Amino acid sequence: MSETRTKSARASDPRALWEEALKKGELREANFTTLSGADLKPLYGPEDAPIDPARDLGYPGQFPFTRGVHPTMYRGRLWTMRQFAGFGSARQTNERFKFLLEHGQTGLSTAFDFPTLMGYDSDHERSLGEVGQVGVAISSLADMQTLFDGIPMGEVSTSMTINGPAPIMLGFYIAAGESQGVDPKKLRGTIQNDILKEYQAQHAWLVPCEPALRMITDVFAHCARHVPQFNTVSISGYHIREAGSTAAQELAFTLANGMEYVRRGVAIGLDVDQFAPRLSFFFDAHLDFFEEVAKFRAARRIWARKMREVFGAKDPRSWMLRFHTQTAGVSLTAQQPENNIVRTALEAFSAVLGGTQSLHTNSMDETLALPTEKSVKIALRTQQIIAEEAEVAHVVDPLAGSYFVEAQTNRLEQEAERYFAEIEKRGGVVAATEAGYIQREIHRSALAYQLAVERGQKKVVGVNTYVEDLDAHPEIELLRIDPAVEKEQHERLATLRKKRDAQKAKGALDAIHDACKSQDNLLERFIAAAHAGCTLGEIADVLRAEFGEYEEPKIL
Amino acid sequence: MNERKIRVLVGKPGLDGHDRGAKTIAAVLRDHGMEVIYTGLHQTPDMIAETALQEDVDVVGLSILSGAHMTLFPRVKEALVKRGMGHVLLTGGGIISKEDMATLEQVGYAKLFGPGTPTEDIATWIQAEMQRRWAREEAQR
Questions:
Q1: ipTM more than 0.85?
Q2: Domain B7-140 carries which CATH code?
Q3: Which of A18, A462, B63, B94 is the most exposed place for a label (fewest CB within 10 A)?
């Protein structure tokens, strides 16, 4: 072929023309990457997104669920708007719950304070200064009853974000329901109960991995029979991402944890279809809109494939990855906090286009303190605007078929598979966690992102670009926790310990002690202990004495 | 300029598990040539002060996102003083309001940093502060 002919052929080829023009164009950056640092092309075409629609996408409500878990998706029912709330005493949080229900929220979500999350009563010396600070203090069945006072537990669905002591807290919840006259079979909600990501990222644990996993399978076994509408675990990528992981790491580590729970359930003799339909997931919605939508789609596809092909699940409900989403707390800035409303809206939009089942939108003031009623209301209204005004909830999986989104979905699935293989090589997820491998991966990503921000490679409005003088900015109103809460809790606990039947309480703790040594179901014993007036800390102390405490690996 | 290596203890007081900031700072300070000891999570004030003493550090930097700083930070200071470590450069960061920062500065925290602070600023501040202290010690000798 002669030189001139090639040139003229090129001249008539639109792609060659475009590539030529692109080379000549002036570009803002040398490299463009996703928020997670994955390289981006300027344009995506069919060659970048090889998909077989029948195999890789399917139809909504059908394997592999890439397009969503329900046939009707949001045409049938909108996602659950579920704002995470909890601060101060059970009484105060009960009021906030009622406030949210009155303003159209459709499910409850409970944040506990650190002592509760770590299995200490409010009057333990390590609880000093922390009671009610970042969540509600729940030390006993009496506190749980106050939390749900006037809220019909048979009608609301409640999410509880707690992990180390989750089986104990679920015992309090079931017992509180019983005291309202509600059959446990009617209770709906989710207990986070995802201990693996605690060791990896969020760090509120109680006992070492093996006994913690045993308690989780006790929850699976008990709930499969007696609390069938409750999601027994919410396998969470949220905290992994917030700790600094990339989108691919969030996806991979979460699903690897999920598969470990399935293995453990099967190992105690449960049929996979007996408990897998009650496994739920929880992801972060960060600022990279397309990468996030792709992540949610990839998550559904991977899970469906693993459950059917690796674990041999036959019930389609076992294949479905249902998930809650929270917008990214780490993306919020203390600088120019009102801008956080916009960040949250973008993130919430990706969760909706990614087909989430429920959503929490962060409030603008959360980098400064717990949110005020005003800022919580704006966050809830953000979801309502997406749901009601923007007309985006009428079409299922609207980004499917976008070359770019399909390419990102494929990429994330491949990256997750690479991590699964790596984790396998390291002896599985428990061994990889105990050795600090997963924590180290997350730390590296966190550090890389921080340095990218400081070098100006990643922009954050108000922090490294469009910076304003901080002092010139009006302070926003902050919610403060009254120190009286701690004192009140001490008094409530003292009264409880005085008034309860001491013999009965001791008997219930002894029964837990015995169950630790046998194969008896611990959750059953926790429910009995709740009714006997045992406190969270007393029950946790038995577990700590019996099972020991977790020691984190040094990764620095 | 003093060529001594600055020894820093990065501590996580209280029950909060958010260690992204602490670990990031620890890594950055190390990259700036400092000797960094990280306490790990869930430390009581006494545990932190004891490690500071054992490791004979020049700087203690605390990271907290639990809201318990007004209780725990003054106790860390007391625990340090009790062990004869009242002289260390005390700093920290986290979700701490401006008013709380001002109060804590009065009980001996030289400077506290809020969210969004470049880690570079923190490292250079520690270096400058230690140089100033060492120069003063030198002059007094």
A1: yes
A2: 3.40.50.280
A3: A18
